[in-house]
Each structure stands twice: as C-alpha cells, then as structure tokens.
Write a structure and sequence with these properties.
By secondary structure, the protein is α/β, with parallel strands linked by helices. The chain contains ten helices and 18 strands. The chain folds into three domains: 172 residues, FAD/NAD(P)-binding domain (3-Layer(bba) Sandwich); 76 residues, no CATH class; 93 residues, no CATH class. A hairpin with a 5-residue loop joins strand 14 and strand 15. Bound molecules: flavin-adenine dinucleotide.
Length: 410
Amino acid sequence: MTTHVVGAGVAGLAAALRLAEAGQTVSLHEATPLAGGRCRALADGTDNGTHALLGANTAALAFLDRIGARERWVEPEPDGLPVLDLLGDEARHVGLSPPSWISGRLRPAGVSLGAVVALMRISLGLGRDRPVAEAMAAYPDFLRGFVDPLVIAALNTPSAEASTHRLGAVLRRLRGPATTRLYVAKDGLGPDLVAPALASVERAGGTIRFSARLRRLLPQGGRAAALDFGEDGTILLGPEDRVVLAVPPWEATRLLPHTEAPADHAPIVNLHFARHAETPVRFIGMLDALCQWVLIRPTGVSVTVSAGDEAVRQEQADLAPRAWAEILRAAKAFDLPGPWPERAPTCRVVKERRATPRHRPGAPPRPKRMPLANLALAGDWTYPDLPATIEASVLSGEEAARALMASARG
Ligand SMILES: Cc1cc2nc3c(=O)[nH]c(=O)nc-3n(C[C@H](O)[C@H](O)[C@H](O)COP(=O)(O)OP(=O)(O)OC[C@H]3O[C@@H](n4cnc5c(N)ncnc54)[C@H](O)[C@@H]3O)c2cc1C
C-alpha cells in the first residue's frame, strides 16, 4: 500500500511528511529537478522570491518546527517595520497591530478612529464583499500608507481589486502582538525550508523522485486507477494505493478537468542584488516606490514587487538601476551599515508570472478535498479560507493527508 504524492511544493512536502510520520509508505513525485515549487531556491541557491511569515501563520511555523528549521527563521525588525515614503522622503517605523499604534511611535500615517473602525469592520467580515480601496476610500492616507502595502503583501492583489472578505480572513488572525511578528529565512529558502523538509520526509521513510512529471491521471469507477509519467513509466494503483495531488491549479484542472480552481493569477517580481556584507538581516518597506519590500541579508539584497503586473513587463536593464537607487535612499534614511556602492551590483530578476491567484471579491473556488475515493487534493488554492500562502499550503497538505488516512480507516 503506497501513497503517491504528486508535487513537491510546500503542500506536497507537508502531506508527505504527515503520511510518512504516520507510518505510511510514501512516494513523492516532482516534475522539476528541484523541490519547493513556488517557494524554492533556484539552481544557484537564490530564492525565487522573498517569503515572509507572520506569527499568525501557526501551521507554517509548526511545520518549520517539525522539520527542525524553526530557528533558521529570524525576526529582522522586532521594533517595528522601517518604512520609507519616497514621496517626501519620510522615514518611520510602523507596527502591524493597532494596539502598537497607541504610543504613537509605531503609528502609520493617516490613522484616525474612523480608519481603525473601517478596518475593524473589514476584519469582522461586516458589509458586502467589495474592493478594499472602495471600503477604505474615506481614509486615503491610511489606505496608501498602511492598508495598500498590507493588502498587496498578503493577497498579491492591489487594494483597488482585492476582496474585503479575503482581507478580513487575514486580519482576524492578527490578534495579539505575537501574531504580527514577522519572520524571514535567515540564509534562504533552500537551507531554511526545502532541504530540511526533504530530509525530514526521507528520514520518515519517504522516497522522492525528481524530473517525474505526471502526464495523465487515469480515473476509473470513481477512483484513480493509474498515474502516467510518460517516459518514466505508468504506475498502476492497487486497491489500497492512494494519491495526493499537490500541483498548482492549472495542472490540477489539466489532470482532473472538472476541478473547481482559480483561473486568474497575479505575478510577483523579485530582484536579487549580489552584495556581500556581514550585516544583520533587515526588512524595509517602501511607499511610492518600485521596491515594496527590501530584504537585506549578508548574501544579498532582495526586492519584492507583488501584484507586479507592470514590473513583469519591464526589462532588467530598466528595473535594476531604478530599484538600486531606491535602496540607496532607504540605506541612507535608516543608516543601514554599508557598503552601498553607487552603481547597482549584479542583479538577477525573477519573474513569477503565476505567483498566486488574484484574490478579488466573490466566493473563491472551493474544490472538494477528495474528488476521487482514493485521491485528495492539496495546494494553497485548495484552502480558500486563507490567501494563497505557505500557511494555506501546509494546512492543505495536512488536511489532505488526514482525509486519506480517515478514508482508509472508514
Ligand atoms: C515570488 C513569490 C513570493 C511569495 N511570497 C510569499 C510570502 O511572503 N509568504 C507566503 O506565505 N507565501 C508567499 N508566496 C506564496 C507561496 O509561495 C505559495 O502559496 C506556496 O509556495 C504554494 O505551494 P504549493 O505546494 O501549494 O504549490 P506549488 O509551490 O506550486 O507546488 C506544486 C509543485 O508541483 C509540481 N508539479 C506541477 N505539476 C506537476 C506534475 N504534473 N507532476 C509532478 N509535479 C508537478 C511543481 O513543480 C511544484 O513543485 C509567494 C509566492 C511567490 C511565487
């Protein structure tokens, strides 16, 4: 009796680990030569994109604990996020939770009682689902200085399009100071997430096959009957064999055409500058800038442009000098330890065109966890109570593992 997990992104890894730890025979099949999916290290070790977690992401942090990598995720800005507003060159520190605004030191621009009430209404899910910018239109400074960056980071959708109900689901989890603490991988997604997750799956007895793309899934009588990997062979499934399909939505609908899945995705663009300096890890936000977030690690400086519909169309030659000029302004504003050369260092641009679904108003697709008697779906998009994130991926993988184990028992 084998459980085949197709897709070694975070969801597949989380499912595989749960199943292997429960004593199941697990075989993981990954289409590419590397694990991690949309949360991976590229062949040269660069992250595909900066990934941040919040304290509220309890499933993701517990997953890091289980794979022995929790200590590798550090809190770069425990005293509030440094934010530079390029319009007016105003530098401040901002707290993520409203109680931290009381003292004034961590207060974002434009906060008023009305603005906080409007945000609380969104957090309670009050009112119809509509674009966040529309719901916050009466508070333009607060929208621009706090809500917009939060929405873009959390939903990868600009607030003019993003759903208030989806934002509400995020805000409801931000209760208490511990939930708003922000963590990043100290050295990178490879050493701090993917490698320890793979090692944990292998230690628990799971096996992993790379460059094995599932070409066709053959259903019969309401069950998955065979997995066709093309030249890598076809696996005929026995009556006890099971499958976790942990692939992105466009692959899931190709393999299982009637699956309810999001069809519209938004890009994230990352720029990685090669700059080596033994400086502490830092995480800086910017307003009115190409750079939304800048992550500074001893191995390099990375810029995130979420909801990057415009940036994805631009060339590296245009993006890199623009971003570096902004980074220099942030380095000066926050007195960040150097070196900060005038000329942009070597830069690698990574464009993830289908980074996440767009989280617009309206009920998101809600696929069945088990569309076939011996097959469970996993993946960020199969956990629509949350935006497509590491947290949703881990929860989906663990839920898929539980559903399969329960179906085997019952
Ligand atoms: C640039 C970027 C920045 C992000 N930032 C954050 C962040 O800060 N915080 C956060 O929480 N989330 C962030 N996310 C979202 C997060 O990365 C995703 O939600 C998560 O990685 C999705 O994992 P998954 O396992 O559901 O899917 P995927 O990562 O897409 O994994 C699916 C896997 O299946 C494989 N596969 C596909 N088809 C087949 C097939 N036919 N056969 C075999 N294998 C197949 C793929 O190669 C892939 O490895 C970001 C995403 C991107 C792209």
